[in-house]
Design a protein that fits this description.
By secondary structure, the chain is mostly helical. The chain has two helices and two strands; from the N terminus they run ββαα. The chain starts with 13 loop residues before the first strand and ends with a helix.
């Protein structure tokens, strides 16, 4: 008789399924940092893979540092700004309601 119950009664805001409405300032900053780093690394990986495919089909050799400067960095900055606006807004809204 394993009756495990999950609390699905949370009605607040969610980000990728995680309830973000109850985060404190440290959890909010940590989530922003994690989202920014993961977006930067995924975009950089995609940029490197695209440059690798470009050079493997016979084009001249490409500078792989372009993947960091032209793909990873702008995506990382964009993710930092958007997650800060979204999660910071949720945090500020929760604090001002008290």
């Amino acid at each position: 008789m394993n009756n495990y119950t999950t609390s699905n009664d949370y009605k607040g805001p969610r980000l990728f399924g995680a309830p973000v409405g109850d985060f404190g300032i440290f959890q909010t900053a940590l989530f922003i940092f994690a989202a920014t780093l993961s977006a930067f690394f995924l975009a950089t990986f995609a940029g490197i893979a695209a440059l690798l495919a470009y050079t493997s089909i016979g084009h001249h050799s490409a500078d792989f540092s372009l993947a960091y400067m032209r793909v990873g960095l702008p995506i990382g900055i964009l993710m930092f700004l958007s997650s800060t606006i979204y999660l910071g807004g949720i945090y500020i809204r929760r604090i001002t309601r008290r």
